[in-house]
Amino acid sequence: MLRSFALKASPVKKVSATSSLRVLCVCSNMNNNNNILHGINTHSSSGVWTIGVATRENNNLRFYAEEQRQKHPKSKQGKESNFKRLSHEECVQVYDYWKNQGKQLNFTFYRQFIQHCNNLCWEKPEYLEKAFSIAEDMKKDGIEWNREVYFMLIQCCVRTRKPENLDKGFALKEEMEKRGITSSQLIYNTLIRGCALLDQKERAKPLFEDLMKLKEVPAGIKFEDVYKHLKEL
């Protein structure tokens, strides 16, 4: 369901190089199921943009921008809209603006902003640092990391395809397990893939052995097949 609202003017924030946006979002309050409205209002020379959030059943969020402009100075039909989905980088910039404004975010929003960084790490490894920064902000707000957060951060490390960041991924797994959170099939597969992408085959073998101990993993799977598949994925 897409939720968007009109807001009156407030300080300008340049969200992309080509347009200024009216930033708006509704986030769920997980404690009492009420909605909290966050927003700023910005105008560009080409019109007014409104950013809304589509909430899905799995609590994932989708950020959209709607530009409203006059069809024609003499038109009687009013305004027309041009709707687009924000890029991952634009969403991260929305995060920066909100934090600078002192907005309180809940787990769902933190998770989604980390995921935007995760999607960027394939082509832009520098977003790994941003993902860790957002995750640290999450801790400062009193929100503990769970298995899902650790998984996303490990995935960020792997997607950079850098040996030193793969080491960080292994360190995150160790930290998580020391906290009593067990590794999942997704975490094992992600780290095995990280090893495969960097040709660290021997390092992947102990991970596969631990993976095969999980109840949900069927017997008979061979290491060579898994390693080859994840390397070529």
From TrEMBL:
The keyword Repeat applies. It comes from the Eukaryota. It holds the Pfam family PPR_3. One of its GO terms (biological process) is mitochondria-nucleus signaling pathway. Keywords: Repeat. GO terms for cellular component: chloroplast. Transmembrane segments: none annotated. This is Uncharacterized protein. It comes from Naegleria fowleri (Brain eating amoeba). The lineage of its organism: Eukaryota, Discoba, Heterolobosea, Tetramitia, Eutetramitia.
